[in-house]
């Protein structure tokens, strides 16, 4: 990662559709302003990086071009994971490529649930004289699956493609974003003391929700794990809008209770901030077994903190077998003055993949990006559970 990469928000985009619809040509026109009349089959999915500025925010689009052949469709599953924007592509001169969109929509929904922003483009509108799929048919398809639709031409319309990608990224940035609310005006924290007697719990205040309602209330539990000084508490503080402080060791396991708006419902969110004392901590193990969304945090400039995550990963696997969980590895740029990270993005992604999770680089000076990450993980968990 170069020294300025942390200033960009990274968004994974994937284009899917039958062979020959122009996925590769669309990406080349967007990224390089190039077009070739010669058709070359894409056999292996590959990634192209495109940088944009949207609403004064620096955005990196990691755009994946997938193989459309039947025999490669199972391989595409490996590259779909983690996609934030999915664009279905068909050829307006090929009716079959349009009919096959049902397959591709079902394929994407199976792999991602409903957690992504969907686009639909009909390519080759420069060949309207050969049209087999009308614009009305494309629009109807888009309305039925909730996709952002446009006709484009990779051959002739660079501006149209630029405008489409800029528009769909803006729509994505507005979606899946909800605000966290503390359960009432005062912070609700339960400190779980690190003693063998698990019943020794000091309640700072009573929850404002009655026990009868709580039984029927949907809960999602998040837990932050990692060694001492990696920045777990400040990441959590950035979520709830609390002041970021200099490092202070977390003595106890803190539980913070929030409300989260989801599809006109309010979901109770419990966030556990652990103290980094290791997997021998009885209370930490207890919370791991109860949790739904896991964050393994390390300091990008401390290799030892990265190595520590392996034991946490094993414990999570052991405690959550056959349970639907979301796991994200967070490489924290823990101090503003960091210039170059010791742990590379590739190392982080490889480790996350072994745990069947995802990897993100975060910084406490980018609070909005952290909040969006947590929002998206909660949405994904709720959609899949």
Task: Characterise the protein shown here.
- The chain contains 13 helices and 15 strands.
- By secondary structure, the chain is of the alpha/beta class.
- It has two domains: 5-174, Rossmann fold; 180-384, P-loop containing nucleotide triphosphate hydrolases (Rossmann fold), CATH 3.40.50.300.
- Strands 7, 8, 9, 10, 11, 12, 13, 14 and 15 form a nine-stranded mixed sheet that branches.
- 39% of the residues are buried.
What is shown here, in short?
The protein is an alpha/beta fold and 385 residues long.
State the end-to-end distance: 34 Å
Q: Any low-confidence stretches, pLDDT <50, length ≥5? A: 184-216
What is the H-and-E element order?
Answer: EHEEHEHHEHEHEEEHEHEEHEHHEHEH
What class would the helix/strand composition place it in? alpha/beta
Query: What CATH first level of the largest domain would be assigned?
Result: Alpha Beta
CA-based shape: elongated
Number of strands: 15
CATH architecture grouping of the largest domain: 3-Layer(aba) Sandwich
Rg from C-alpha positions? 23 Å
The average pLDDT is: 78
CATH superfamily of the largest domain: P-loop containing nucleotide triphosphate hydrolases
Helix content: 25-40%
Strand content: 25-35%
């Amino acid at each position: 990662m170069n020294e300025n990469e942390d200033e960009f928000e990274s968004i994974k985009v994937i284009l899917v559709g039958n062979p020959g619809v122009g996925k590769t040509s669309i990406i080349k026109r967007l990224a390089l302003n190039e077009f070739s009349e010669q058709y070359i089959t894409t056999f292996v999915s590959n990634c192209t990086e495109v940088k944009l500025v949207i609403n004064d925010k620096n955005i990196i689009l990691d755009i994946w071009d997938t193989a459309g052949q039947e025999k490669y469709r199972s391989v595409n599953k490996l590259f779909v994971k983690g996609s934030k924007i999915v664009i279905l592509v068909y050829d307006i001169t090929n009716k079959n490529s349009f009919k096959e969109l049902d397959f591709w929509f079902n394929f994407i929904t199976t792999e991602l649930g409903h957690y992504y922003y969907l686009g639909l483009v009909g390519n080759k509108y420069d060949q309207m004289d050969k049209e087999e799929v009308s614009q009305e048919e494309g629009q109807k398809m888009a309305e039925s699956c909730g996709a952002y639709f446009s006709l484009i031409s990779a051959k002739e319309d660079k501006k149209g493609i630029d405008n489409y990608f800029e528009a769909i990224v803006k729509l994505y940035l507005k979606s899946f974003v909800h605000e966290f609310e503390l359960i009432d005006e005062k912070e609700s924290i339960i400190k779980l003391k690190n003693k063998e007697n698990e019943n020794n719990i000091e309640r700072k205040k009573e929850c404002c929700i009655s026990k009868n309602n709580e039984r029927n209330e949907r809960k999602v539990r998040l837990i932050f794990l990692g060694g001492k000084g990696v920045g777990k508490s400040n990441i959590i503080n950035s979520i709830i809008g609390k002041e970021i402080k200099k490092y202070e060791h977390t003595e106890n396991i803190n539980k913070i209770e929030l409300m989260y708006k989801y599809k006109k419902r309010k979901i109770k969110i419990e966030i556990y901030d652990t103290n980094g004392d290791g997997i021998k901590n009885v209370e930490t193990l207890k919370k791991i077994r109860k949790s739904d969304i896991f964050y393994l945090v390390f300091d990008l400039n401390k290799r030892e903190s990265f190595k520590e995550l392996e034991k946490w990963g094993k414990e999570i696997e052991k405690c959550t077998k056959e349970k639907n969980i979301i796991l994200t590895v967070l490489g924290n740029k823990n101090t503003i003055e960091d210039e170059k990270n010791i742990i590379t993005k590739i190392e982080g992604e490889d480790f996350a993949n072994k745990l069947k999770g995802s990897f993100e680089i975060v910084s406490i000076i980018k609070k909005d990006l952290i909040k969006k990450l947590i929002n998206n993980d909660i949405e994904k968990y709720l959609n899949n559970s």
